[in-house]
Amino acid sequence: xxxxxxxxxxxxxxxxxxxxxxxxxxxxxxxxxxxxASFLTVGQRGLMExxxxxxxxxxxxxxxxxxVVHDNPEAERxxxxxxxxxxxxxxxxxxxxxxxxxxxxxQALFGKESFxxxxxxxxxxxxxxxxxxxxxxxxxxxxxxxxxxxxxIAGAQVLDGELGPGDVIRVEGRPFVLVGVLAEKQDMGPGGxxxxxxxxxxxARTFNLEFNPSKRPTNIAARVVLPPDFEGPLSLYVxxxxxxxxxxxMHDRTLQSFDxxxxxxxxxxxxxxxxxxxxxxxxxxxxxxxVGGINIMNIMLVTVAERTREIGLRRALGATQGDxxxxxxxxxxxxxxxxxxxxxxxxxxxxxxxxxxxxxxxTAWPYYVEIxxxxxxVTFAGLIGMVCGMYPAYRASRLDPVEALRTD
Length: 408
Prior knowledge:
Layout: H1 2-14, H2 16-55, E1 59-64, H3 66-71, H4 80-88, E2 96-105, E3 108-110, E4 113-115, E5 118-122, H5 126-129, E6 134-137, H6 142-146, E7 151-154, E8 168-171, E9 174-182, E10 199-203, H7 204-211, E11 219-223, H8 234-249, E12 258-261, H9 268-306, H10 308-316, H11 321-361, H12 371-397, H13 401-406
Parallel strand pairs: 5-10, 7-9
Antiparallel strand pairs: 1-11, 1-12, 2-5, 2-11, 3-4, 3-8, 6-9, 7-10, 8-9
């Protein structure tokens, strides 16, 4: 095997341009496979996380299961103790937890114009959990949360966006001063009448005093953060966290009177689109490697013609047809594997440059190499070398030794 490797390296030393042209297809195919596998992994993970954040799939909501509560009037409803348990349990990862109150339609007036917004009482962490940003004005101050001030924040589409900071609205007869207006929040999924864009937000204590005498939360929201070392999709991690949340919430319950909402698995359509993209990209690299293998086969046929006298001499010294076949087959495989190694080295350099450029000018992009792509590219290159080397090796082994020795 070392002899064949030395022969391939000797071809490289003596005919560099010819050798590089011979293995160019394999180099490009292997480098493409390694680079694209890395890009797909890093890019897909970033895309799925961004999509999940936009859709709120990293937010888990816990609400009452009203069918269970209706059938079992004594069943425990969601309460503040549940919120505290979820926020402090050692069983769960660190979670940003918030209770939401109300989320019901109400009659409201701005001047003489009436409208029906969705009203909700929120805690300070709600803005972080639900990624609520302000288009104008400000958020609630600590004093407004604590001192039960009559202030509110309007969603971007409340009253067709006519409201602004400083406006006074009346909700079910009670006056409130708007301190801010939310930036429009893209609806992913159903949205509709439950959209944050048509809600009016109040400090939680203000809402409970004015509209919610029971002071029971409608739901509890928690946002999960995917750990950097977690290999699976966000949906799997969310499912694991929900299982742990169930254990925590069932600690003081004999009946599961709650259910989960908010977080969901990625859609089948999205998965299918990503799968089709992956298949198309990987098939392109495979075709490139196959074309490279055909190029190597053509060059090896030329090499057999150039080394006809050498083949005849070996046959005269006792080499069998099998020996000649194995020699040229091994040389072809070695040439292909050298091309694969050059392709891998090229890919590592390209990934380093891409990581630096993307991080500098676009977004944080880690240097990452899919190990399976390296192993697969070497294996596939070896197989291509073996398949494409069979015919040249067979031609070499079938040469008549006497005729071969007569060749100049």
